[in-house]
Design a protein that fits this description.
Blueprint lengths: L2 H25 L8 E2 L1 H8 L3 H13 L3 E4 L3 E4 L4 H25 L2 H19 L3 H19 L2 H24 L3 H16 L3 H25 L2
Antiparallel strand pairs: 1-3, 2-3
Helix pairs in contact: 1-3, 2-3, 4-6, 4-7, 4-8, 4-9, 5-6, 5-8, 6-7, 6-8, 8-9
Length: 223
């Protein structure tokens, strides 16, 4: 490995770690919506230096989880249910494409990981372990993007994952439905593991239908 690569690789790894830690804290509401934050405070919270934190913040801003206010600081974005419905319109079409092509293109090793994730979803629900579920969901999303091997679909989908997970987590705290959500996720994972293109798309539609139903119910309950 070249000296340049040795310098670059730790930086990328720290940035990824900073992103994962901050994304999980925001998604699981440990940093609540509307909270004002700073680079320094996030660096102290994670124990990671300012440069990786700054790069992680940029990614979170692209994913609409953090709002960068020029000369005023950073704000964790509010949860907007009406925007969530628009997000679901987009997510259904893009994620259906990703799941279908992942079912076609996944390697043998990736299919084994999908099968394992299906079991992980079921186990996290049985233990009522919401953080384990969120982590399995993030790994599932990343694996779908990797197996699909389509950088254009990946770029579009990355902007939607964090907001979707955070909204589910908020809903789950209000109306626990982890067993059903775990079952629906496991169905998608197992279909991809079995190279079932049609089954993956149909399972994904059932999953998004469930998410859309409780999102619309939230809108109605607020009126």
């Amino acid at each position: 490995m070249s000296a340049a690569a040795q310098i670059i690789e730790p930086k990328a790894t720290l940035t990824d770690l900073a992103y994962e830690m901050l994304e999980e804290a925001i998604v699981t509401l440990r940093i609540p919506p509307g909270t004002a934050v700073s680079e320094q405070a996030l660096a102290e919270m994670t124990g990671i230096g300012r440069t990786p934190i700054r790069e992680a913040i940029q990614r979170l801003a692209r994913e609409h989880l953090i709002v960068v206010l020029p000369r005023r600081g950073l704000l964790v974005s509010e949860i907007d249910v009406n925007k969530q419905l628009k997000l679901l319109e987009t997510r259904r079409e893009i994620e259906r494409l990703i799941c279908r092509i992942a079912a076609r293109r996944a390697s043998g090793e990736e299919r084994q990981r999908f099968a394992r994730l299906a079991d992980d979803f079921t186990k996290s629900a049985a233990r009522n372990d919401d953080v384990a579920f969120i982590r399995a969901d993030r790994e599932f999303n990343e694996l779908c993007l990797s197996a699909a091997r389509n950088e254009f679909a990946e770029g579009a989908m990355r902007q939607l994952h964090g907001l979707s997970r955070r909204f589910w987590y908020l809903h789950y705290k209000q109306t626990p439905d982890m067993p059903e959500m775990a079952r629906l996720h496991a169905e998608v994972a197992r279909a991809i593991a079995k190279s079932d293109v049609k089954g993956a798309a149909e399972a994904l539609d059932r999953l998004v239908d469930n998410i859309e139903n409780y999102t619309r119910a939230t809108v109605l309950s607020d009126r």
